[in-house]
Write a structure and sequence with these properties.
Shape: globular
Number of strands: 25
Structural class: alpha+beta
Length: 888
């Protein structure tokens, strides 16, 4: 018989609909007079969404005939979603609540869905056999990982290969074409043009003893990829990397299941690895770190089998010949992939050898494990002696000891123990380049390692030899990680150059997923699992942003900028300032900010534990997401106080520009204006953005720096509130060339046409002299005069903007290189937009010193130029409207 329908269930459903309306909208930050504007969905949508959620709740309740169960899913959903409504509450709350404006508002929704799914999965009586059976589960894990990795590559392939990838491919091309490792002839012939557009100088610091050039990069990865590269070129190499990474995910799933006897833990560890940005990006980029991670995992699997850590087999059963030989070969490969990976090979090699002796493994089997590493080590050292003739000598005697693995660097190793503190802080904590900044789920590995080293909490469930085996595996992972971390951190360029985050620690991430699975298996409390699930949600969310936004460019950061994903996810406030940033501040400050977040996590854990003691399991699960969101908001506020003191954390104009962009995308949206608590419908907005310049010391003097928000296509007016002490120059991109200039003595107002989106940029006064005082005017007003569709008809973004004469040129890709008198382009295709073209546009084209064909396209107009070496020609391009997109 049906019971009475709880009112709280209907209220939860109704509030979920209202929260969805607010999440779909956006708002500006309060002006000095307290007013703000908001862009909400069209009025029919505003009314329909809450009604749909309410009707869905009623229909589900009527169908289930179990009214108390109505709260099982909605309660799990609406509690975390409360966080998304914080920026909209008419209460005097701290500025940290505005962190939940923009795309970050969807994070509580991900938490709500994950919480609901976790409740259903936890209460499910039986898992499908395909997800629990060792063989089929492994195949499923590998297949799903391949889908994730391949889809990620498809999303970011437009910017690849980049960084050091072409240099590894050149080595593979040398092996394929010449059968050697010398790359000077390959660069002279331009063999790299098959996979890289533009000029690629050889990457070396020291020539070989034969006078030829050998790459500074290790030859192991190119040799591994050679068969696939010979068949399919760059695409074949990527396919091989994808398959190897997916196979590593399958091995990880089976290993965690074998050690924990828990399929749920195996899937959680699998998700921690496969959904983390460092592993995703290095599953298809031509760097050695992803392959090194798979090779390390093979060694960990062999150690677990030898030590008896697997629960699916008798610990007294000797390891198979195949396990010993494959693990030895995998560890032998590591130094060939990168010299720093030799630390991992040594630790796990010694651990496996010691375990074999402890388990009294027959000598023939131990020899089977050791033969390949010994031969590989001899060949590895012999390689440096043969190519470079460099030896490590006995101090004071000058007697050759062993060949020198640092020989390719020619003494330029950038390695010192004094750099370890900053390197460790950067590799682990930095929000842009560090591991925990983009994949906080790996914090859980520390808890898992503690449990592995401490042994089982219930020894009756596990044989004593299996407990010892788990301890051996945990100790080996901990020692290898610490040793490898120190070796990597001592290298000055710990951020890895032009690569995705945490590249240098990727070889240890798949092994660290094992203790993550152990932690999930051992942690049965609501608080610990809620925090672990939240860390996984944040990890997956950051990966989705880095992969899905701007073709993956946000993953490739710069030391001179903050983490780009923080500005995208939270445009209203400076989220980056609340996260550790080693380049932005100091290692000490980064450590303090990390401690703040650790304290926030501890506080959330204590609150959830207290709730769980006095509430039902379902209610505790539902409230856990809300508690975590609130402590995260508090953590942001505390971190701002530590890093910035009393500085305003709001990003000038960020929220306003987001509101304008939302209005542009949805002209039929509902505009609401508020002054205090009340609000009313309003006309299309003209939002004035007051941007405050911040004085910062630069060299011996001082400069003023203004960070502009992203500008959507339209027309804008820059106005000085009062004269500045010098001219203000607006620059966008890496060229360092001027876009527009405000001269306080001549021009105080400037109208600018923006035909395509211009990302956040910096404006600098050219000459801020020492007359700056506290009374110096530092305010600039940016006023949108009108919004317009993109001149290209697509959501293009200007990578650089330079003004040539009377025309603004917006460069839409990285294939163009502006100079003061013009710009040159790489072979291939480049796209620009020329603004303010009232009449025909004249282009002066100068060809390179080789015969060339250039095709120019502007709308329906097209012209092909067959140019002789060095030929110059002038071309008239007809105007296509307010701005002219040109494809070269």
């Amino acid at each position: 018989m049906a019971r009475k329908l709880p009112r709280s269930g209907l209220l939860a459903a109704l509030f979920t609909g209202v929260a969805l309306v607010l999440t779909l909208g956006t708002r500006s930050l309060p002006a000095p007079d307290g007013s703000w504007v908001a862009i909400l969905p069209a009025m029919p949508v505003v009314i329909a969404l809450p009604m749909i959620c309410l009707a869905a709740a009623l229909a589900w309740g009527l169908a289930s005939r179990r009214w108390p169960r109505l709260l099982a899913w909605p309660a799990a959903a609406w509690c975390p979603v409360l966080i998304a409504t914080l920026p909209w509450l008419p209460l005097p709350l701290p500025a940290a609540r505005f962190a939940w404006l923009g795309p970050m508002a969807w994070l509580p929704w991900l938490a709500a869905i994950a919480t609901g799914v976790a409740c259903v999965v936890a209460d499910a009586p039986v898992w499908p056999r395909a997800m629990t059976e060792r063989r089929r589960g492994g195949w499923l894990a590998g297949g799903l990982a391949l889908v994730v990795f391949a889809a990620s590559y498809g999303a970011v392939h437009a910017i690849l290969p980049g960084g050091d990838e072409p240099h590894y491919l050149v080595i593979a091309e040398s092996l394929r074409r010449d059968g050697d490792l010398a790359i000077d002839d390959n660069h002279v012939r331009g063999d790299y043009l098959a996979f890289f557009r533009g000029e690629l100088p050889p990457d070396y610091l020291r020539r070989g003893v034969d006078g030829r050039i050998y790459s500074i990069h290790a030859p192991g990865l190119p040799a591994l990829l050679l068969p696939a590269f010979a068949v399919g070129g760059y695409g074949g190499a990527v396919a091989a990397l994808l398959l190897a990474s997916a196979w590593g995910a399958a091995v990880l799933w089976r290993l965690v299941r074998d050690v924990t006897a828990d399929a749920g833990a195996a899937w959680f560890a699998w998700a921690a690895a496969v959904l983390s940005a460092p592993i995703v990006f290095h599953s298809f980029t031509v760097f050695p770190d992803g392959v090194a991670g798979v090779a390390t995992l093979i060694g960990v699997r062999a150690l677990a089998e030898l030590a008896g850590a697997r629960r699916d087999r008798d610990p007294s059963t000797p390891a198979s010949w195949v396990t010993l030989v494959t693990s030895g070969a995998a560890l032998a490969l590591l130094p060939w992939l990168h010299t720093r990976a030799a630390v991992i090979a040594v630790v796990f090699g010694l651990a496996i050898a010691a375990t074999c002796l402890w388990r009294r493994t027959p000598w023939p089997r131990l020899a089977a494990f050791a033969i390949v590493p010994l031969l590989s080590a001899a060949g590895w050292f012999g390689y440096f002696a043969r190519v470079y003739g460099a030896w490590i000598r006995v101090p004071g005697l000058g007697v050759p000891l062993v060949p020198d693995p640092s020989a390719p660097y020619g003494g330029y190793t950038q390695t010192a123990l004094a750099q370890v503190p900053a390197g460790v802080a950067g590799l682990l904590l930095d929000a842009q380049f560090g591991l925990f900044g983009v994949a906080p789920i790996f914090v859980l590995a520390a808890l898992g390692l503690v449990w592995m080293l401490a042994g089982s909490r219930n020894p009756a469930d596990t044989l004593p030899r299996q407990i010892a085996g788990v301890r051996i595996v945990g100790a080996a992972i901990a020692v290898a990680f610490v040793g490898y971390l120190v070796a990597s951190a001592s290298y000055r360029m710990w951020w890895g150059g032009a690569s995705a985050p945490a590249r240098f620690v990727v070889p240890m991430l798949l092994p660290l997923a094992l203790p993550i699975g152990v932690a999930w298996s051992r942690a049965r409390g609501v608080a610990t699992r809620a925090l672990a699930l939240s860390a996984l949600i944040v990890t997956a969310g950051v990966t989705l942003i880095l992969v899905g936004v701007d073709d993956g460019r946000l993953a490739y950061g710069s030391r001179t900028a903050v983490a780009g994903w923080t500005r995208w996810v939270s445009p209203a406030v400076d989220l980056a300032r609340a996260l550790p940033g080693v380049h932005r501040s100091t290692p000490g400050t980064a450590a303090v900010l990390a401690a703040v977040w650790a304290g926030a996590a501890a506080m959330g854990w204590l609150v959830i534990v207290a709730i769980a003691r006095g509430a039902s399991l379902g209610r505790a699960r539902a409230l856990a997401g809300l508690v975590i969101g609130l402590v995260a908001t508090a953590g942001i506020g505390v971190a701002w106080r530590i890093d910035g003191g009393s500085a305003d954390p709001r990003l000038p104009g960020g929220a306003e520009q987001a509101a304008l962009a939302a209005w542009q995308r949805h002209p039929g949206a509902t505009l609401v204006e508020s002054r205090g608590i009340g609000f009313h419908r309003a006309r299309p907005p003209v939002v004035r953005m007051h941007l405050v310049l911040e004085a910062r010391p630069v060299g011996a003097g001082r400069q003023l720096r203004l960070e502009l928000p992203p500008l959507a296509p339209g027309r804008y007016r820059f106005t000085h509130i009062a004269p500045l002490p010098s001219a203000l120059t607006v620059r966008v991109g890496r060229s360092g060339l001027d876009w527009r200039r405000l001269d306080p003595g001549a021009v105080s107002t400037l109208d600018v046409d923006v035909p395509v989106t211009v990302p956040a940029s910096a404006a600098w006064p050219l000459d801020a002299s020492g007359v700056l005082t506290a009374a110096t005017p530092r305010t600039l007003t940016l006023e949108p005069l009108g919004l317009a569709p993109s001149a290209t008809g697509r959501s293009d973004v200007a990578r650089q903007v330079v003004r040539y004469g009377a025309h603004d040129v917006f460069f839409l890709d990285e294939e163009s290189y502006p100079e003061p008198s013009g710009f040159w382009v790489r072979p291939g295709r480049s796209r620009v937009v020329v603004g303010e073209t009232a009449g025909p546009l004249g282009l002066f084209v100068r060809n390179a010193p080789v015969a060339n064909q250039v095709r120019l396209t502007a709308g329906l107009w097209q012209r092909t130029l067959d140019l002789a070496p060095g030929q110059e020609i002038r071309v008239e391009v007809p105007p296509t409207g307010r701005a002219t997109p040109i494809e070269i």
